[in-house]
Amino acid sequence: MAKVTKREKFENVLAVLEVVGAEAEAEFVKGELALLEKRANAVKGKTKVQLENEVLKAEVLEVLAEQGALRATAVGNAVEVKVQRATALLRQLVTEGAVVREVEGKVVTFRLAE
Fold it and tell me: Where does residue 4 rank: exposed (0-12), middle (13-18), buried (19+ CB within 10 A)?
């Protein structure tokens, strides 16, 4: 059995209300359907932190381009953020394919992808 969506439930209720002649309730349900449509079509923008991270990721890429392979601590110092944030940014860049993570023993370095 397929899952019934909220929209489908409202449409079913609206059909019943129109047959019964409950105009006020039908108008309410139409308003709820309009709200669902508005929410579905809303463009989700980036948060303030996501926008800041985009700028920082560009700076990280510049640093790696200039200095070559670096540890997360050095990247953090270069872009003036804590090592935890630098590590998170580097992880995102690795996922995006822009940066390569290299492990040699206990030393982890990051460099630009070729």
Answer: exposed
Of the candidates 88, 85, 114, 87, the residue with the CA atom closest to the CA atom of residue 99: 114
Q: What is the pTM of this model?
A: 0.62
Task: Report how far residue 64's alpha carbon sits from residue 12's, in angstroms, rounded to the nearest whole number.
Answer: 58
Residues of the chain with pLDDT under 70: 1, 43
Across 51-106, the runs of DSSP E, i.e. the strands, are 99-104
Domain annotation covers residue 1: no
**CATH classification at residue 64:** 1.10.10.10
Residue recorded with tokens 């050095």: 74
Q: What would the two tokens of residue 79 be?
A: 């872009």
